[in-house]
Design a protein that fits this description.
about 650 residues; alpha/beta; eight-stranded mixed β-sheet; four-stranded antiparallel β-sheet; 12 strands; about 45% helix; disordered N terminus
């Protein structure tokens, strides 16, 4: 059962969202705006004076501002899954990137769609793409604005991120096309997430604190959306919720960004609710959670449901005196990607407990900055918090979805967004025996800087950061694997193989490390070594078209043509439109002096992805098939494409 009675007794945490009495059902438009990486204490209406946030401030004046709202996770996917389901990560199952949303847990969109709503979602980053890193997030949405599968640009804009104004325009176009309600639209503004690159004029106005510039720009996008609603007479009668998914470390506790720790710097988020005909300018100071948002919306709409949530309705706080607070739970498994211990936390009004290899207890009334650790194992607060966390961890195992293996393209998206790709491996049986993230904050900051520098094309900066990591920890799997990938992309195949060999020894079951090692050894000329590494990769994750294509190319070099064809056929079963697989299969046919059979594969490869390599192989096949004119045409096309590639606009 999801409800655990002793938790309510200990901390009043997990309760039903269903109130004793329901108001009559009504169907206003409902708009959810999530602003990524938004600290509550960097918003004007929360008392911050260094940034202008007129849209958020005006919405707070028109509605209710929750002064003490807390997210369950400092990671975008987990935190958004909590907002969209009203459940904790242990219930909805999204503990990591690319983990499917638990199919047994209904979503906000499904519940409203079943009540007659049209539904749409507009995301600002590929991190929430339902086809890759956020499977299941599109459940219940009539339209989900995913990113293109094959972006036309290498710029991060359009490839892995959209500016807030573009997201808002996409939402407005959908609303224009669906003028009649009731409508539910989720708008996700990713801008405050690092790297902090606000557009003009915010880049100039906030040049000394660009994170605030990103917030100001995101606020302007929110302002444009609210202005659109007002212009189209869709504002006054709408239920509007604006919330941050998590905060940002900004150097506090040694954390530059987010994901590793569970301090208030990354868990305290702004939450503003505007409903029709409510008392304006209300401020609720009691502690609330992002698990409470969905139950509150259903309660305000008067929608009956048999669903039981980990959160509770905030309608009583919206309408009258504040009542007893419930505990806020936090969890992050992201440190496991580095081989470090995961963390969990319990926060009540007076204290916070963080379970870690070196546990932490803070008196929030005397130490709001969480600086003085008061932990003693016999402290009654520690005992109570641990009992509550034990109950959360004992949630049914079937409620947890497992992460499916992800492809190289998905890992590249993660790195471009500043997150570590493959999980680190460890043989340590208990998380408590893993390194404490508190001892690794500088290493994590360096790894993060290296990933962003690499995506920006600043290879030397990335190398410098990664070598600093290895100076302090020569067996850092993330640093070794990142350096190996960096040198592989730079065509430094010997250096790449050296780093990746070390990484492979540390994590022989890591499919991504094995794939990169196989590719480096192939380019280096070690075909037997490449074959072994690629087989290791496929043993760990058989559903990798890229690994099968690479193995097909290696087997071709070893003149194992039958084996090569088997691998490439398997790649095409996984991804029929994989241009690299068609090209490699065409080359196998050419190696066997079967130009007529090669032509079909090579034509497909050139159609799917015009490249110099595809047209050179096509020219060879035409020549071998006795079609010299077509061979010359293909050769000229190859030369033209090569010239374009060497002189990009």
């Amino acid at each position: 059962m999801k409800r655990l009675a002793f938790l309510v007794f200990c901390l009043g945490a997990l309760v039903s969202a269903r109130p004793a009495q329901r108001a009559p059902v009504w169907h206003p438009d409902v708009f959810l705006v999530t602003i990524d990486t938004l600290r509550a204490d960097h918003v004007g209406c929360y008392g911050y004076e260094r940034v202008q946030t007129p849209a958020l401030d005006s919405l707070a004046r028109a509605g209710t501002r929750f002064a003490s709202a807390f997210t369950a996770s400092p990671i975008t996917n987990s935190s958004h899954a909590t907002i969209l389901t009203g459940d904790l990560p242990t219930t909805h199952g999204v503990m990591d990137f690319a983990v499917p949303l638990n199919p047994a847990v209904p979503t906000w969109a499904e519940l409203l769609k079943n009540s007659g709503y049209r539904t749409a979602a507009f995301i600002g980053a590929a991190i929430l793409d339902s086809k890759a890193l956020a499977p299941g997030f599109d459940r219940g949405f009539d339209y989900y604005d995913n990113f293109p599968e094959h972006p036309a640009t290498r710029s991060r804009w359009g490839r892995v991120e959209r500016r807030g104004m573009e997201v808002v325009r996409n939402a407005e176009r959908w609303l224009d096309a669906h003028p009649r309600g009731p409508r539910f639209a989720w708008v996700h503004l990713y801008d405050p997430h690092d790297p902090y690159e606000p557009p003009p004029p915010y880049a100039q106005t906030y040049k000394d604190h660009p994170y605030d510039g990103e917030i100001a720009y995101a606020d302007s996008a929110l302002g444009a959306f609210l202005a659109y609603l007002k212009k189209n007479s869709a504002y006054d009668n709408a239920l509007i919720v604006v919330v941050g998914d998590h905060g940002e470390g900004l150097g506090e506790h040694g954390e530059e960004t987010h994901g590793i720790f569970l301090y208030d710097s990354t868990l305290h988020v702004p939450l503003i609710v505007k409903q029709p005909a409510q008392r304006a300018g209300r401020v609720v100071r009691a502690q609330v959670r992002t698990t409470d948002i969905l139950p509150s919306v259903l309660d305000l709409l008067g929608l009956e449901t048999t669903v039981r949530f980990d959160g509770e309705s905030l309608k009583p706080w919206l309408a009258g005196p504040e009542k007893a607070e419930a505990a806020a739970f936090g969890q992050t498994d992201y440190p496991l990607r580095f081989g470090w211990a995961p963390l969990s936390s319990v926060r009540v009004a007076s204290y916070k407990f963080i379970e870690a290899p070196r546990p932490e207890l803070y008196d929030l009334r005397q130490d709001a900055g969480e600086r003085k650790n008061l932990y003693e194992p016999w402290d009654e607060r520690v005992k109570s918090a641990r009992a509550a966390l034990a109950g959360i961890r004992s949630a049914p195992s079937e409620a947890r979805a497992s992460a499916a293996p992800v492809g190289q393209g998905t890992l590249d998206e993660l790195r471009a967004l500043g997150y570590l790709g493959p999980k680190g491996s460890t043989n340590v049986p208990e998380p408590s025996l893993l390194p404490d993230p508190k001892d690794k904050s500088e290493e994590q900051n360096l790894l993060h800087r290296a990933m962003l520098a690499s995506d920006d094309g600043r290879g030397d900066d990335a190398r410098a950061a990664l070598r600093k990591v290895l100076d302090s920890d020569p067996k850092s799997l993330p640093a070794l694997s990142q350096l190996g990938r960096l040198e592989l992309d730079a065509a430094h195949f010997g250096e790449a193989a050296a780093f990746l060999t070390q990484a492979h020894a540390l994590a022989p079951g890591d499919s991504s490390v094995s794939l990169n090692l196989g590719q480096a050894l192939h380019k280096k000329g070690d075909l037997e070594g490449a074959r072994k590494a690629l087989l290791d990769s496929l043993q760990a994750n058989p559903k990798q078209p890229a690994a099968r294509v690479s193995l097909g190319e290696v087997l071709t070099g070893l003149q194992d043509f039958a084996g090569a064809e088997d691998q490439l056929a398997a790649a095409l079963l996984l991804e029929p439109d994989d241009a690299a697989a068609h090209l490699a299969l065409g080359r196998v046919k050419l190696a066997q002096r079967k130009p007529a059979e090669a032509l079909e594969e090579l034509k497909t490869a050139a159609r799917l992805k015009p490249s110099p390599e595809a047209y050179r192989a096509l020219s060879e096949a035409y020549a071998g098939a006795g079609q010299p004119q077509l061979a010359q045409q293909a050769a000229r096309r190859a030369a033209a494409l090569a010239g374009t590639a060497s002189n990009p606009k």
